[in-house]
Amino acid sequence: MSNDIQDDISSLKLLGRWSVFYYGVGHMLNDITASCWFTYLLLFLTEIGLSPRDAAYVMLSGQIADGFATIFTGELIDRFGHFKIWHGAGSVLVAVSFSSVFGGCIPCRILHTYAKSVQTISYSVFAAIFNVGWAATQVSHMSMVNCITRNSTSRVVLASCRNAFTMVANLSLYAVALIVFDVIKGETHADIENQYRWIAYVSISIGCCFVAIFHLGTKEPRLKVGVQGNSHARISWAYWFKKLLYYQVAIVYVLTRLVLNVSQVSTFYFPALWCSLYSFVQVSNVLYKAYLAFYVINDLRMAHSAKALVPAIIYICSFIVSVILQEIAWTGQRLKAYYSAGGILWLFCGAGILLLPTSMSEYMYAISIFIGIANALMTVTAISMQSLLIGEDLNGCAFVCGSLSFLDKISCGLALYVLQLFQSNSTIVQQTNPVYAYTSVTRYGLGLFPAFCSLVGVAVTCTMKLHTPCTKPLMEPLLA
């Protein structure tokens, strides 16, 4: 009993910088592989000969597998705990399957055929396996925040640190990609496969090093500890479905993830409407990542090095802002204000992307700075809203993280699939009529859709009633 009370008291204290650091690096493998996934997968698949439709099938199969895996993983973690075991097992799956996705069509070599149908099925299967492992790692790592500490400010700091190292992971990927694209010339089909194979192998190696640091430095948190150290039963799904804040946070989180990855009627609270709005947010994130490479090369006619330089600028700015955000004493009103600021900033960025002509393509570097700032503001605050939603209800934290991630993945997959279908149809039109090149599907997908998701996210945020946590600011900066 005395140990439970001591654990309860320690969970209210502000975390030290090393505890924050060890947790923050735990998602590096997921982040660096996800960045490669959303930035280069569609590009890779189309460059090796798959049609945009087949490439969309591969992406969608992975997103669906990821979505359902998050639900089951969250339920199992809430039942049995052992966050680090789930995290480690998921990391192993990610490392093995991701190398197979970008390592070439293995079944094609075994069957001695490179038919498009065989390639599509092969990449879809490995994409699904990769996303199952990714989901196990993500849900265990994200839900762990609420059990590591009950201090509201420390929870935001952990989310900020995690986001900062997400930027480090993305920067690492683009540094690797910049070197690989410069050293290995993609003149033949084999050269292109070799380029992406090296990017995948180096990325996995970097991510695995940080996974090891996370497991060595982070203690297994206790799941079933109540407000006063008392154990209590697992919280049912129905408990969350009856809370209006659950749907509001879901909308904001999904819309934010959509902005990041593309650039995530009930009787009481109209959940169908809320969930569809949540999906819009997440999809905009997916679109920005997935179509950024297409936009800078095909629409703006920039040099191929821009495929790495433009995203690198975005992530450098996001990293800086994420580190700064950890120094703030957070309240519910500040979360809403900072999220709204990021969303409004994205509206201007979206307008710039939509209207930027090819002759002024160099201004994309300036727009990238503001995209990076907006992404950090929206991501850190949206994830932190989950912690305010969970509060002291720790025995349902994994379900909350898993269910929101489910909506995120399904929404992103469907959004990318639809846009790829339009992309396939618009390619022929652009070749026959140059006027359409200025208003391509890529330009609308990257500029208009994330901006719309940001606008909806800001509108929903303004309706939230977030309790102001009574906590102190972080006393030890992460990078002091």
Short recap of the structure:
This protein is mainly α and 480 residues long. The protein is 77% helix and 0% strand. α2 runs antiparallel to α9 and α4 runs parallel beside α7.
- Give the class from helix and strand content and strand pairing: mainly alpha
CATH topology: Growth Hormone, Chain: A
- CATH hierarchy: architecture: Up-down Bundle
Average pLDDT score:
77
CATH superfamily: MFS general substrate transporter like domains
Task: Give your account of this protein's structure.
The protein contains 17 helices and no strands. It has helices at 2-11, 17-24, 28-47, 52-80, 83-102, 106-111, 116-148, 152-183, 189-217, 237-241, 244-262, 271-299, 306-325, 332-355, 364-390, 397-432, 441-463. It has one domain: Growth Hormone, Chain: A (Up-down Bundle). It has 480 residues and is mainly alpha-helical. Residues 1-9, 225-232, 264-287, 427-432, 434-438 and 469-480 have low confidence and may be disordered. Helix content is 77%, strand content 0%. Helix 7 runs antiparallel to helix 16, helix 11 (244-262) runs parallel beside helix 12 (271-299) and helix 12 (271-299) packs across helix 13 (306-325). It comes from Cephalotus follicularis. Pfam families: MFS_2 (PF13347). The chain crosses the membrane at residues 20-43, 85-106, 118-136, 164-184, 196-217, 237-256, 268-288, 308-325, 337-357, 363-385, 397-419, 444-466. One of its GO terms (biological process) is carbohydrate transport. This is MFS_2 domain-containing protein.
